[in-house]
Specification:
Helix content: 40-55%
Order of helices and strands: EHEEEHEHHEHEEEEHEHEH
Number of helices: 8
């Protein structure tokens, strides 16, 4: 049984799986199967950041088995989130040093970093159409690379999502109420990066030990390397002993209700 009480005030964690698409799903499926085969730790809930057409080559609804698998995860209690449409920064080229840093150094995946409002809205509509066609719900939106411009944020808010997240917080919509999200994330592109981020994340685990929420943000590349994959296995196992496993949507609802109670007193 889960030793952590099912209380919205008890510490929690989010297992956030990025870039979920047909090509990446086998990595996540094996990872989750290994964790869920273990008796200790109680239930494990995931937030699956799903990309409709990853890099213009991996169209989700052309893979019926993948779509059924995600529907089954949703029915079992996981949450599906719309994670851009192409997950590729194909907008106008950056013209400023800040833009170059955000879109060519920190990430090349910031699809919503330079779109105009109309194009951002179109991609959101197309993404939601695919979700609804598969019987998937989408309460939240996470822009690829965790970056977006003001036009993209307006389009996200107007689409009716309950929330969006970036690299440091979750924002309730439409009022943009912000809650910080302490986050563990890897950079697995090279061995030295993996080893550096393992050390950094161990420090983050210590530093955020008393935080009410902790986000574990995994990417498919993490699971292609044994040392980063093992880090995530060990980390999820350890965190499950101390925190409740929640989806983003559930945690947001809990915090909103707690806030309402405080105001009503």
């Amino acid at each position: 049984m889960n030793p952590i009480p099912d209380d919205p005030r008890a510490p929690a964690f989010m297992l956030s799986l990025h870039d979920v698409a047909p090509h990446s799903w086998p990595l996540y499926r094996a990872f989750l199967a290994e964790l869920e085969s273990e008796e200790a730790g109680g239930e494990l809930r995931c937030t699956l950041l799903t990309v409709p057409d990853f890099h213009h080559y991996d169209v989700a609804d052309r893979h019926p088995a993948f779509c059924r698998a995600l529907r089954a995860r949703q029915d079992a209690g996981d949450e599906l989130v719309l994670h851009g449409y192409y997950h590729e920064d194909d907008g106008p080229a950056p013209q400023t040093p800040r833009g170059l840093l955000r879109r060519r150094v920190l990430t090349h995946e910031g699809e919503f970093s330079a779109l105009n409002r109309g194009e951002a809205a179109r991609r959101i509509r197309d993404g939601l159409s695919m979700f609804y066609g598969q019987g998937w719900r989408a309460d939240g939106f996470v822009p690829p690379g965790w970056v977006t411009n003001s036009e993209g944020r307006n389009a996200i808010r107007e689409a009716g999502f309950a929330y969006r997240t970036d690299s440091g917080a979750i924002y309730r919509l439409p009022d943009e109420r912000r809650w910080p999200l302490p986050t563990l994330v890897m950079s697995s592109r090279s061995q030295w990066r993996r080893r550096l981020f393992i050390l950094l994340n161990r420090w983050r685990l210590f530093y955020y030990h008393n935080a009410p929420i902790l986000r574990l943000a995994l990417h498919p590349v993490d699971l292609r390397h044994q040392e980063s994959r093992q880090f995530w296995l060990d980390t999820v196992r350890a965190v499950r002993k101390e925190r409740r496993s929640v989806t983003k949507r559930r945690w947001l609802l809990e915090q909103s209700r707690l806030e309402q109670r405080r105001v009503a007193r």
